[in-house]
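Note to self: keep these together.
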Amino acid sequence: MPDLRLAVPVVVAWAAAGLGIALEPPWPVAIALWLAAAGTLVVALLRRGGHAPLVAVCLAAAALVTSAAAVQQPERRPAELAAMAADGRYLRATAAVTRVVGDRFEATLVGVNAPNGTTVAFGRVPVLVFHAIPDDAGIGSTLHLGGTMQPTPPGDDVSFLYFADRVTVAAAPPALLSTMNGLRAAFLSAATALPGPGGALLPGLAIGDTSAVPEALDADMKTSALSHLTAVSGANCAIVIGLIMLLGGLLGVPRGWRVAASVVVLAGFVLLVTPEPSVLRAAVMALIVLVTLAVGRPVHGLPVLAAAVIVLLSIDPWLSRSYGFALSVHATGGLLLLSGPLAERLARWMPRPIAAIIAVPLAAQLACQPVLLLLEPSIPVYGVLANVLAGPAAPVATVLGSLACVLLPLWPWLGAVLTQLAWLPATWIATVAERLAGLPAARLPWPEGAIGLGLLLLITAAALLALLTARWRRPAALLVAVLVVGTLGGTTGARLLQRAGQPQHWQIAVCDVGQGDAVLVRSGAATALIDTGPDPALLTACLDQLGIARVSLLVLTHFDLDHVGGAAAMIGRADHALVGPPDAPSDHALLAEIQRGGAPLQAAAAGQHGRLGELRWRVLWPTGAVEEPGNDASVTVSFDGVGDCANGCLSSLFLGDLGATAQARLLAAGGIAPVDVVKVSHHGSADQHPELYARARAALGVIGVGADNGYGHPTDDLLSLLQRTGTAVARTDRSGLLLIAPTSVPGTVELWTERAAPDDSPTE
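Structure:
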């Protein structure tokens, strides 16, 4: 039986790290913890025995990670930089790229130009830059940035959000990082040239690069609980080190030299796949194992895992809030604790090799599901089966793909052959994901929040009792059955009741996509989508909930991330696209993808019009004059009924992110008439023209806005303005999905909200 006392210091240190990064400053807590640890250690030395030694270790671990947070906090969020950001100043900065995430990237600020013209140097300020990285840049590149900054809440893994309108390359990466960037780029190009989903998935399996994975395949991987295969972790490191140690042993290389070679190769592998949280956890564990082997001591999994977690939290306490790190630790702990006992129990009912194959994914899913539930409140029904089928193919794709990545620049013919061989298991994994994700009830709904998490933990504990013990098997199995049936029945019933209460004749749906816009307008069989929000997954969930498989008209008002970040979900799902003026190369690349998906593109200009069922749409802005890309060039479109409107027609006005000046010009150009619904500009910012809203006299103003968005949206000024014009307010941050339908009373609308908001005004 493993000694579970090792888990106690880890849990305490993890909680202390999460607390320490949220406090400003954490020094008082750190000092108190050090004093408590010293006092407890004295008690442990005097009394010898009892729980005092364990308590002392826990307090020392907590003090260590809290002190690390206290030391790093001033460097990560300098007061001078926070003041510059709070003023909303346009800042020019120099930053080094640390990670690329889709069409944005993370970086460490090197320096910022102060208002007095001097350059203020910084060393460890992590920022998330909302701009595509230049094509000739990569990890380690030094970039010049221009834009505004917004502080993040305490405890966030980045200290500032940088909204850049200018990004240029200042310096190439150091030689080693440049080499790794070249290896990744060459392998990505070779893999994606292969046909089908296997080519897109292979870079993720081999080096953790998921940039080529289509949105649909990514969703299928998540639905079938296979997405962990594209997160490089312990299995990849174990394979790499295992090969070095095995080959060295066969060649008679002394153990010390094999360990040294393994450390060097491990460091290179981490740089190649980039130091994600799961990679760091695996690498530190592997390093501890190598050091232990070098000194001739036996290796035990749980102490290694516990030591790795505390070491990493001491180096970077902000890992305590990383879902990737949590999933990696939970999966490893589940395998160490549960896979053996589960295999022994399952072997009583099936052949031992099959029992071992099933036990590994079952142990990992049982350990990780509580964390996964916080990300998405549902249970993957076929997750274990998917991992049993796809799991054996993953190490083959990893080994062959990693070798191909390294060998492509040296021996292109051999690298190409290995890439093609690795494509076969990658294609098998993609096929398993697609087939199982397409089965009925692939994911079952589960309650959200603390109640859902508590139920899942109780069911998991009961299931383990039923599987691993003889005494409690029957009552535990009965409890599992009752809880599972009751929970799924209650959740499904609640969702059916919720959907039954939705107005089936809705004409406008405002998706809850966080801080962003994604609004549907429906008339008969035709549907328009105005903007896509910041995240394809959030948009897809909304479309699925409403049963929208395709849209007749896609309107992209402008190319800020919160309006087009989810556009990948619409590739191949739109009949026609009406777009604002693009700016960056990434904007043009997105439009090319939409066009390749079968949607003809049309640059929006005032005066354009068309039909959507019984509605007529008209473009009111931008005017014929050339508008600079950005908020004030937002496509502004209106909808109103045509003819008899047998099904009832709501008139509506969608303002994108137009500022007050552009709104005044729009109003002066004419065409603004009273409407039933207005989509409030720029998520309810204060930059509004009151007379436009007075002219529109909408019954309802809808605001797509994220909770705790950091911008103060919607502002009190905007809410007061709408109140003065007699416009009721509905907000996605408080009410979730909004569905709006016509009524028999002119000038009123029917509003359905996903969640009750106590201070929302009635609209009828």
